[in-house]
Amino acid sequence: FIPMAFHVDYWDHLGWKDRFARPEYSERQRMYQKSGRLSSVYTPGFVLNGREWQGWFRRGSPDISLGRKVGRLQITVSPGMHAIAKFNPVPGRKVDDLNANLVVLGFDINSEIGAGENSGRDLQEDFVILGHSLSKADTELTWILPWPEITANMARKLAVVVWLSREGDPKPIQATGGWLGRD
To answer: What tens digit of pLDDT does each residue of 33-59 get?
Structure first.
């Protein structure tokens, strides 16, 4: 279970631009909706194991039980340069057309809200995606993911996450991650 906050930009026109929002994150949410995995595009929207989860609104607990085994994903990270991901699938697992995604997450971030319904408040943020990169399918099941361009890095702690998904389907197949040391 690896939470990640993809900040969307479709509210930026209300007077306060979210410094972590990116158009591609809004498009990602729309892709979930187009694929039938999200009923509509809204904020906050929660996706768990590739499907919409509305339990947060009812203060429910997510089902984070382990799914079926798919294989082992390992990463070697060279911060600022790249990450190398290697997937060893369980026998018989379909493995063609897998893409690898890399994100750097920021934690313990303070954001001053300048406009809108939360104007004047300070927002404490965790699990914020500061940068994302993607490597397309690799028949050898090894990807060299370029280090993403990091935006607005005021995080006190950083983490890295890599996950695999099929081309055209945002649902994660396997994921791994860990903390990054600060230099």
So the answer is: 998 888 999 888 888 888 888 887 888
